[in-house]
Amino acid sequence: MRHDNSDPIYQYTDTPTTDDTFYMHLALNEAWKYQLLTYPNPAVGAVVVGACGEVIAVAAHREAGKPHAEVLAIRDAYVKLSGDLSLAECDDAATLHEQLPERSRNLFHDKTIVVTLEPCNHTGRTPPCASLIEKLGFGRVVIGSADPNPEATGGAKRLKEAGVDVIEGVERKACDALLEPFVRWRNGRFVFFKLAQTLNGVIDGGIISGERSRRWVHAVRERIDRLLIGGETVRKDRPRLDSRLTGGKAPDVAIFTRHPDTIDRTIPLFSVPGRNVSFTDRLPEKGLVMVEGGAGTFEALEKETDWMVLFVAPFVKGGMGYNGAKNFEILHQRKSGEDIMLFLKGR
Ligand SMILES: NC(=O)c1ccc[n+]([C@@H]2O[C@H](COP(=O)([O-])OP(=O)(O)OC[C@H]3O[C@@H](n4cnc5c(N)ncnc54)[C@H](OP(=O)(O)O)[C@@H]3O)[C@@H](O)[C@H]2O)c1
Question: What are the two backbone dihedrals, phi and then psi, of residue 121, each rounded to the nearest 5 degrees?
Answer without folding.
Answer: -125, 20
